Amino acid sequence: MIKSLKKSDFSLILSGGGALGIAHLGVLEDLEANSLKPAEIIGTSMGGIIGACFAAGLKPNDIMDILNRFSNAAKWIKFSFSGNSIVESSKIEKIFISIFGAKKMTDCEIPLKVIATNLLNGEKKVFSASDDILIKDALLATMAIPGIFSEKEINGKIYADGFLCENLGLKEASYDTILAVDVLGFNSFEKDMPDNFLKTANVLEMFEKSMRLLIYNQTKLIKEQVNKKIFLLEPKTCGYKTYHFHKVNELVELGKGLLE
Fold first, then answer.
1. Nearest Cα to Cα of residue 181 among 111, 239, 252
2. 163 near 215, Cβ under 8 Å?
């Protein structure tokens, strides 16, 4: 895989997956160790956030520091008592401003594409350098899980999380060689049924398992439609939850050692 990636320009695609997306950083560290630089980065939700950091020129160590800030939920969660979501995004927006300032999509060192979903009609929106918007606004759109995080209005349109239409942005690749990292892939769900003492725990696990299967099948279908050389990495995230932001070090390790 490494030899093939060194021979040609490639698109790096990072999936969404909440805290599971922290595993993307392990892959980025391996890319840097092997002197591999993608020709473009495509990200959805958490993959968009980490991809944007890398595209803007931050090193894996810098991104690690940012992720550690997210490990303390009090620093970025602010509960909302109005509107359509549980969490209001003002604290998260401040963190993005501290990282990207007033940088726009055109200011990235590596071309960046961020996937979001038009919440009113379901259409996919791919923010790129052709959109005259701030990086932080594209990220607030791609991470806006409906009902959890506040939806984002950009140029009069309402956007939500990109996982609703394409969690792994394979269709958006400009290059014939793709390195795709899917933290909600085949290795993201348990292959047996939950067996907790409390029924509530079983119900919650069944719901999350169903969501992972739904997204996995969405990606599987899209992959069959893309006629390009795809190197697919699927970190073993099945033992972790999408809200495990406090397990940064463990999740980063899941992404390491997957490049051959």
1. 252
2. yes
